[in-house]
Amino acid sequence: MKRISESSVTAANTKPAGIFVDGLTMPAMDRQWFEEWRAARLGCVNMTVSVWENSQETLGLLARWREVIRENSDLVESASSVQDIERIAASGRTAIVFGFQNTAPIDHNLDLFGTFRELGVCIMQLTYNLQNYIGCGYWEEKDTGISSRFGRKAIAEMNDVGILIDLSHCGERTTLEAIDLSSKPVAITHANPRAFVASPVYGSGRLKTTEALKALAAKGGVIGLTPNRNMTAHGSETTLAQFGDMVAWTVDAIGIDAVAIGTDYCPGHPRSVRTWWRYARWSRESAPAEHMKVAPHEGWSSWMSTQAGIHNISAELDRRGFKTDQIAQIMGRNWMRVFRESFAARA
Fold first, then answer.
1. 150-186, pLDDT tens digit by residue?
2. CA atoms of 213 and 44, how far apart (whole Å)
């Protein structure tokens, strides 16, 4: 795809192309974020409910989110199928797909995959940075891959009940083996290509190898490229044109059918919650000072100060010469295809 020098692009310069989907967001429970979604004309978001919580704690979170969504039904509604997403988006509201960024809520119980799916949880990340019963996160020094017992059974169960497998925080071997073992397409909801970024950024371990991305694409999967400053070469100074370069590079590397957007936008949380995400109860350590300095949520690029910035990406792709249908794929249609293939339970 051709690259053009950056110019001033705003959300007003472009029109929605189908349903705009954000592959990963994790807001605090507050109406203002739903209002931002509407201002951004987002038709659907994958919204993280749980990271380290166990099954009981997660049930409590789901109950609270359901109540918040009911109280704000003029803006949002939960969705557990592509048909739900299309209906909600057509009404001018945002469809919320519940997701986990870890399988901690499963409590090593395969039956809970189906239970949570019945409660509307459609996407689960296998690991969050560390090793668990299924596989390894990217923080582990040695990635032993998908466990031959529980891990393989878990992947088969997720395929059966209709849960999309997310590999964003997984290690390299775990990522490759999960792609191979899954009978359905899988996702990397929020990450960037290692070969393109090529910088020792805070989230460098989260960056995905070209081998993994090609394997993902070959099995029909999708990666959500993220403007998160911890995974871009120039951090908060990353320009819209530089982000567009990465989108174009990824499309050239693995094909347009496998490329989408996952902002990893997580507004409204205090530092204590961000520390919890990274260190949780598994360690007596507190977050090192250097981590707290370089990895806050604040400090995004000016063109992505809210999720309305997703339309700046659309406008940038248009300026580069991407066709209307190609932009529609990247901004939402590729996610919708994967949702359609993965959310359905086996007969």
1. 999 999 999 999 999 999 999 999 999 999 999 999 9
2. 24
**CA angle at 342 for the pair 340 and 347, rounded to the nearest 5°:** 95
Tokens in use for 130? 């560390």
Q: Please report whether residue 9 resides in a domain.
A: no
Number of domains in the chain: 1
Number of alpha helices (DSSP H) and beta strands (DSSP E) in the chain: 14, 9
pLDDT at position 153: 98
Q: Give the domain extent around 30.
A: 19-342
> Is-above-0.85 flag for pTM?
yes
Distance between CA atoms of 282 and 144, rounded to whole angstroms? 19
Residue 3, domain member (yes or no)? no
Radius of gyration of the chain (CA): 18
Is there a domain that residue 1 lies in? Answer: no
User: How long a stretch of residues is the chain?
Assistant: 347
Tell me, what CATH number does 196's domain have? 3.20.20.140
Quick one: tokens of 69?
A: 């969504």
Read off the tokens for 291.
């981590």
For residue range 322-337, list pLDDT tens digits in order.
Answer: 999 999 999 999 999 9
Angle, CA of 316, 218 and 129, to the nearest 5°: 75
**Mean pLDDT score, 201-230:** 93
